[in-house]
Amino acid sequence: MKIDVVLGLQWGDEGKGKVVDVLAETYSVIARFQGGPNAGHSIHFDGKKFVLRSVPSGVFRKGTINLVGNGVVLDPLTFKEECESIKAAGIPLEERLFIGKKAHLILPTHRIIDAAQEAAKGKSKIGSTLKGIGPTYTDKISRCGLRVGDILSPNFMERFHALKEKHIAYLKQFDFEYDAEAGEAAWLEATEYLKNFNIVDEEYFANECLDNNKKILAEGAQGSLLDIDYGSYPFVTSSNTICAGACTGLGVAPRRIDKVYGIFKAYCTRVGSGPFPTELNDSFGEELRNRGYEFGSVTGRPRRTGWLDLVALKYSIMLNGVTDLIMMKADVMDTFDTIKVATSYIVDGEPCNVFPFETQAKIEPVYKEFKGWKKPICDVRSESEFPYEFRVFIKFLEDELKVPISIVSVGPDRDQTIIREN
Question: Active-site residue 161, yes or no?
Fold first, then answer.
């Protein structure tokens, strides 16, 4: 059996939670392969909304196994709060959720380091969510981190305090006030809560599922343009958000990857600092933000908004080997007379068709304009009902991107999803 992968092709917030929830019905296992609680995946159904930060987005589907992979960083306290919210909705979480032993733990002092580092950057801030993600991945690479499996060790407390003291020593270089004890008792209580779940050797677990013909859907967090290696560095996240990250994050071989679903919005958004060639700092951008409710599902921060960027999108498609595209939030632009798409750039005065290395370069988008469809599409339930102008828009994107748009979302709910038969 093979693994299919769902990931974002822009700067995150593309709507991965909804897509995974919709697709999960046909998979046995849903697996998160990277990222931490800075990524909020929103799911809407039966008039309810859930925001998942660490728990895979298939948890609301009966009969699914939901696996937190080794590539994830986990904050026990945030995880406990999330799980209690899900269980309050009547979901039998203990029987559906499995956690990899090699997933790294976010300590309270990781959050403090995150805040101290960001404050020290001043105007050069990268826009961290201050969840401790970066410092946790730093400890992972430095080979001094704590992992989920370590909570089962008899010397866990000794190792916890040793890492905490290491963090306190590091923080001496910053002019930053903090309380190293704040939240520690609740955090340690939450590590005990973790023991209620199935803590497994995730790489063996995932491969055994495949060998037993259980189909896996791998769920990425953030977006491809935030990848630590291939994103708009240094304004990126701390993990590999591209398809290759599914292999390292779950411990599965590349040959086991089958379909790669790439999700994109019909426009672009970005949170925090960093280059954004098609950004709109005008009434159109404000309308996109308000109509699309473009505010962070975890942080509540307003997202920057702009027109769709095909240069960046083609770059992400290439990196991920995308086989199927999924377009989100086209309904947000129902009221626009004109819709623009960036087809190339002018970089420092020169024509450019590739995603540039230099993030500080002067990038001017070259646009193609389309007539808006000027009709609400949120109630459309089949492709045959698409307005003509919307069909023209989709056809142009498929011709340019050389990948079929297999799914079109016309609203936040499960049933506002059109599976195309092309």
Answer: no
